Amino acid sequence: MANVMKDLDFFDLDALLGPEEKMARDAVRSFVQREVMPDIERHFANETFALELVPRMAELGVFGANLHGYGCAGMNNIAYGLIMQELEAADSGLRSFASVQSALAMYAIYSSGSEEQKLRYLPEMAKGKLIGCFGLTEPDHGSDPGGMETRARKDGDGWVLNGTKRWITNGSLANLAVVWAKVEEGITGFIVEKGTPGFSTRDIHGKFSMRASITSELMFDDVRLDPRHHLPNARGLRAPLSCLTQARYGIAWGAIGAARSCYQCALDYTKSRKQFSRPLAGYQMVQRKLVDMLTEITKAQLICLRLGQLKDAGTMRPEQVSFAKRNNVNAALEIARMARDMLGANGIVNEYPVIRHMLNLETVNTYEGTFDVQTLILGRDITGESAFD
Ligand code: TGC
Ligand code: FAD
Predict the structure, then answer these.
(1) Nearest to 7 by CA among 20, 18, 22
(2) What pLDDT does 7 receive?
(3) What pLDDT is recorded for position 352?
């Protein structure tokens, strides 16, 4: 088993971290090395998620780590980012599980729910006893969630929900789905519990990416919801988009973990593999690739550290998160592709983590706003002109 948990800290960023941040990172790093790595390739091969890890992640305070109260760990945002980085060093699917639970499902309830809903769901979600998912994307509306067709019709003091959500991480595992729908006044959110009549799920199989993560379709056929299931403060597209900002923040950090694993693997491999007269690492073209990887990872680390400082200070803008998500995931994908090439034939087998990361990162580049959508968000920010329509 490759040890992909080593540090890569060319600019001694460790010196800028506080004890709480290092403790959170190190605890998750050792959990990942001891409890995730031995089985991750099996889960990827079998298209299964390692549900047995959920109670352990809860013990480590992973779920809702940066939320305050309601049984959440209340860590700062740098500690939260470092946790995401360590989880994704193992597998993007593991980080996805934690992102969806924390930054999407829990955050939606935390930011848009009533006090009663927060008390009812958040402590159990922090303990990993309730699993959440987040249904925004539909079969015909991905990059343009504002076009969603899912509808909730008012019926007495409740609603009747109809529609389909697709590509939903944790969909069939979840005890509750945060679902976004149009009502007369615009877009709002609902909490739909598993087992509610008319609510069903179907898993998507045949993925070449994120195989150690469950992705599902959610179907709503005349699902009756009472006021307890409506998020009262979710008004307009701003509500789900503000959850995406939280999740993109974690992804920007997470991608560094996947990139670091690929770099470490390529470095170790090229130092030991001899072709012609010496180790591959002794050739100039190989060194150039390793140095490019190191440079991109270090730049991504610096972006995230500053982004975390801004988030902790309460001044972070969503466009800064788009910048970080776009840059870091794209860099990680390029690094994974480069590492795959540097391992030659061994780059295509599961004895090494590289091809698994490379395939996963294709999803990470697409979900939570594609590379091009983040480009348009930034283009609009700097020019004042929207190029979406
Ligand atoms: P637009 O006019 O831009 O915005 C509507 C309202 O929302 C506000 N807003 C935001 N607020 C907080 N955070 C953000 N990131 C925000 N972006 C926009 C905005 O200020 C406005 O507010 P108000 O009060 O003026 O109404 O709306 P638009 O329709 O033009 O949006 C376009 C666009 C492209 C920005 C947006 O729709 C978008 O980001 N599309 C990408 C869709 C996406 O990322 N989907 C992700 C689905 S979830 C997922 O993939 C989970 S994967 C999880 C995992 O497994 O890890
Ligand atoms: P499309 O929007 O159809 O885009 C296709 C291509 O067109 C992309 O290259 C895009 O960049 C480009 N494009 C789109 N609009 C423009 C434009 N205006 N100008 C130029 N180019 C454009 N969603 C959830 O709600 N919850 C989840 O938990 C979730 N988990 C996911 C897990 C996985 C494994 C995957 C693969 C996806 C998940 N998603 C989830 C969905 C994800 O957010 C969407 O796939 C993503 O937002 C892109 O939407 P789309 O796939 O419909 O692509």
Answers:
(1) 22
(2) 76
(3) 98
Q: Which ligand is nearest to the CA of 137?
A: 2
Candidates 21, 124, 138, 368; catalytic one? 368
Helix (H) or strand (E) holding 239: helix 238-272
Quote the percentage of the chain above a pLDDT of 90.
98
**pLDDT bucket at 157, cuts 50 / 70 / 90:** very high
* CA dist., res. 133 & res. 128, Å (int): 13
Atom of ligand 1 nearest to the CA of 318: 15
- Which among 366, 367, 285, 300 is positioned nearest to 331, based on CA atoms? 300
What are φ and ψ of residue 251, in 5° steps? -65, -40
Let me know: does 89 contact 5? Beta carbons within 8 Å: yes
Q: What is the CA radius of gyration of the chain?
A: 21
Residue 346 C-alpha to ligand 2 middle, in angstroms? 31
Six token digits for residue 335? 């690094």
Q: What pLDDT does 3 receive?
A: 46
Please report, to the nearest 10 degrees, the dihedral formed by the alpha carbons of residues 339, 245, 213, 80 taken in order. Answer: 80
Cα separation of 216 and 171, whole Å? 5
Task: Tell me which amino acid residue 314 is.
Answer: G
What average pLDDT score do residues 266-285 get? 98
Cβ-contact 330, 257 below 8 angstroms: no
Maximal C-alpha separation, the chain: 80
The first and second tokens of residue 46, run together, are 């079998």
**pTM, full prediction:** 0.97
Band of residue 4 on the pLDDT scale cut at 50, 70, 90: very low
Q: What share of the chain is helix, strand, coil (3-state, %, to 5)?
A: 55, 15, 30
**Ligand 1 interacting residues, C-beta cut-off 6 A:** 96, 99-100, 134, 136-137, 143, 145-146, 169, 236-238, 241-242, 244-245, 247, 318, 367-369, 373, 377, 388
